[in-house]
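EI: anyone free to look at a 329-residue chain?
SC: sure, send it
EI:
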Amino acid sequence: MPDLLLDVQGLETTFKTPDGVVHAVNGVSFGLKEGETLGVVGESGCGKTVTMMSVLRLIQSPPGKIVAGKAFFFGQDLLQISNEDIRHVRGAQISMIFQDPMTSLNPVLTIGYQMEEPLILHIGMSQKQARTRAAELLGMVGLPNAKERLNDYPHQFSGGMRQRVMIAMALSCSPQILIADEPTTALDVTIQAQITDLVKRLRDELGMAIIWITHDLGIVAGLAQRVIVMYGGYIIEEAPVRELYANPRHPYTLGLLGSLPRVDEKEHTRLFSIEGQPPVLYQKPEVCPFAPRCKWAIEHCWKENPMLESVAPEHRIACWVDTKTGRAL
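SC: here you go
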């Protein structure tokens, strides 16, 4: 589609381990429009983070290897361009907030030094200009006494403050895409809400597109316009956010939503639990990866892995069964 800002096609990433090759991402395809917020959800180990790090070529090799796929951004395939060119894309055009704010900042460098570096490298600012801009960015994300705090080290900031610094660093070069990898995981609930509101405000002010990686479906409901659900290295459901919550169709998505406490229930209902364990991906699944844990599984599920197929406008699932009727699709 010509209107896509980022177009990922058939992405596959593996990791070589002493026990064998792990097939972490298995043919993932998705698109991102300008100004859109895309939620990527699924349990730990399903391939969310590896997918996005592969797009930015941040997979350490060895042991990791991108074995197939394309990722088009402004007409260039990010998986094929030179190392020098991808360095100009990272940070400047596509930024990433990494998962743990406690360890993502260098403990022996001041916050000011770490914020000024991308401004000098990517935009060509002088040190004085970068210093002024860094203070503006810290103020924009709500840190008080921003100019003075530039001389402080990461250990002098709380977890919420460090996460705000990470957001300010990611936004410093005004990227077209911001990838946020579970940025609220290590924070308490009130700080989570503040960070989420901050990102929404900055998105509206700056007009950037966001990919928000999380296992928290509650956050996605109030933030994203579209959601993809991942399992076993595959996308197993994709839909606009309202459609996904109102009409989930894949058994795994139903399980995820059933495990969330509801405040609109008239009667007390027991939370749903998905039985079994996630798949061990030493072999690329040739059958449905969710079949061993699925109460709707039929014989066909054990013979062939389903492709993503439309079940409603802009709503696709990879399943052989209609969960509304229990019959084969």
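EI: The mean pLDDT is 86.
SC: 👍
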